[in-house]
Amino acid sequence: MKFDPERPIYMQIVDLIKKKIARNEILPMNKLPSQRELAVLMNVNPNTVQRAYKELEDEKIVVTLRGQGTFVSDNPALVKKLKNELANKALDDFFIEMKSLGFSNAEISHLISKFLTEGIDDNAAKS
Amino acid sequence: MKFDPERPIYMQIVDLIKKKIARNEILPMNKLPSQRELAVLMNVNPNTVQRAYKELEDEKIVVTLRGQGTFVSDNPALVKKLKNELANKALDDFFIEMKSLGFSNAEISHLISKFLTEGIDDNAAKS
Amino acid sequence: MKFDPERPIYMQIVDLIKKKIARNEILPMNKLPSQRELAVLMNVNPNTVQRAYKELEDEKIVVTLRGQGTFVSDNPALVKKLKNELANKALDDFFIEMKSLGFSNAEISHLISKFLTEGIDDNAAKS
Amino acid sequence: MKFDPERPIYMQIVDLIKKKIARNEILPMNKLPSQRELAVLMNVNPNTVQRAYKELEDEKIVVTLRGQGTFVSDNPALVKKLKNELANKALDDFFIEMKSLGFSNAEISHLISKFLTEGIDDNAAKS
DNA sequence: GTGGTCTAGACCACA
DNA sequence: GTGGTCTAGACCACA
Prior knowledge:
The structure is a homotetramer.
Chain A: H1 9-22, H2 35-42, H3 46-58, E1 62-65, E2 69-72, H4 76-100, H5 105-118, H6 123-126
Helix pairs in contact in A: 1-3, 1-4, 2-3
Chain A binds a DNA duplex through α3.
């Protein structure tokens, strides 16, 4: 696992797990890897994983059962909320990038429409 | 300067300069920093900068005049082309992210509309 | 500093600081000792103090300013809330003890009245 | 058994037995565990238990019959006296705590009344 | 100087 | 086996 040295590793683990839940790659009630397992997988200290899991627990995204493991919350609103958060971030990032390139709202709107109708055959457009 | 160890540094410098040109932060006919200057600024080897400038020259984005320096091409289509390339990439990244979160084209379209009408303040504030 | 080995040290530090705030021994906006200072004073590891301070921050009891220190919140309701929490605990503990000794509500009420009128000259009563 | 290292263990055993008698958990005329038994149970030296029993005997709380064992006194006033001692201590501790939190006699009186009327469930549930 | 993050590793509590 | 707490100590970021 490669981590961005600019941001705390434990926060990157938090974001990674949030993303997996938002993408339905980890379902509600599923068990996350144990702290030790994930620490080995990601090549970090178990304490760092615990910090990430603690943060997820504080945010009510997981529940921890001592001696049993850490599980994705069974809150029906949870996945939806995470999806929305990540969608808003993607939306934000996209608009910031487009604005920085000097595109107006109208132009962005037009490009989106074109993209949606023409599909993903954008290779021609790029070259 | 922090570089991603996964990709060649010279390519990252190329992308960075393309982005600056696309954003009008460096204008056509402007002189780029000398290879030595940029090498010091970015804390890389001058050969790495030279390789980046060579690549930009091969792509007709800059011209190097011996003894004078390296300049952004005065090709009127250049900036536009770079803008489009980066816009397409942003568009692609955005759609890939939204699709991975399970959003349909209709939902994406709706979110964009909402963002354009309601979220202008947010957006303006951030750009 | 002596800690009860049955409870986490960091929680005991949390309770201790809460008690000091409830007793007006530390006033709102006051700076707490630095993590290193308190660690030396209490003869524990700085990480343990940080954990306590983090918990207090999560409970909005203190605010931490990086590079400056940790301060008691300036929330006017805070001290009152802590006082009430500790008063309720004292009340609970007292009633549990009296009930375990077989005293009825009426008897407890009577003892309290007597205590309040006769003052604290309870030494005679004790022997 | 966990003992507070700050006070003599035998005194803590004395207090523990007094509390059990005050709570009717050990009745007058009942036989206490043998010194050896209790020593094993509490993981202390038999001499320590003997010292505790000796203290209880000096206070007329138990009587030891050679070759038969140690028995709670059949003095009708004994249990009552112990109850009162412990009640006074609880009362004292409670008032000291409430005073340290800045509560006046009137406020304490009011809280007790409220607790007795509203908090009966809570209290019952806990005892 | 002050808090924030991380590693390495020990030992405990719950199941 | 799984999470929880703690120590010792390093190094970084902010001011």
